[in-house]
Amino acid sequence: MSLPPSLGNAINSSLIAFPALFSIINPLGASLIFAQATQGRTRKEVIELARLVALNSLAILLVSIWFGSWILSFFGISMNALRITGGLVVASRAWVMLQQPETSEARKEKQALQGGRTVAAPDLKERAFFPLAMPFTVGPGSISVAIALSSSCPPHMPAPDYFMGVSAAATAMGIVVAVAYAYAERIVSMLGVTGARIVSRLAALILLAIGIQILISGVQGFLVETLRLAHH
């Protein structure tokens, strides 16, 4: 039994978007730092905080996916320029993650812990958005990936199908973040620092390939436009 074309398109786009989002957010590696940030809190507080961080992160991703490219287009930035820029940002970020995972870990740890105030903060909702959702979970790199994905709809695919699939991938990412953060202590005991760095490097390698793919699609778009103008 074959799937309806719109559903098939949505599934295909979500299968492209999810690895990109997973690689840049790296919830397994981030959960190790989240466990430190929530040390001393009750189990109920950790689960509530994980849920709030995931919801806030999902909201940031969806806004970036649905409105990011439109905002840039409003300022006269073409879709192909956006793809090239997004591809470069994603690839460069992945390269740093691949070569210097310790530096990325230290930056994220500084963002999450905020000098130890995260643990002591009485208002969970305040810390759930800043710094735990943004910039710790979804920072500039994640937003760049989301905007780059929003501009990467294949020419043969209807835009609503594509955006539905990318949004589904972002939603799935939010669920993964909620689960990873809620069970951060167990993930720490299973992976450890070495295991987390192995996962981070694998994720960075996938992200590097995705960034190059987005970059190539932008260059191809410019070449097609140039050839079309030359024929006219």
From TrEMBL:
Keywords: Cell membrane, Membrane, Transmembrane, Transmembrane helix
Pfam families given in the database record: MarC (PF01914)
Subcellular location: Cell membrane
InterPro entries: Multi_antbiot-R_MarC (IPR002771)
Coarse class of the protein's main subcellular location: membrane
Mode of membrane association: Multi-pass membrane protein
Residue ranges crossing the lipid bilayer per the database entry: 15-37, 49-75, 162-182, 202-223
Presence of the UniProt keyword ATP-binding in the record: no
Domain of life: Bacteria
Family: Belongs to the UPF0056 (MarC) family.
Name of the protein in its database record: UPF0056 membrane protein
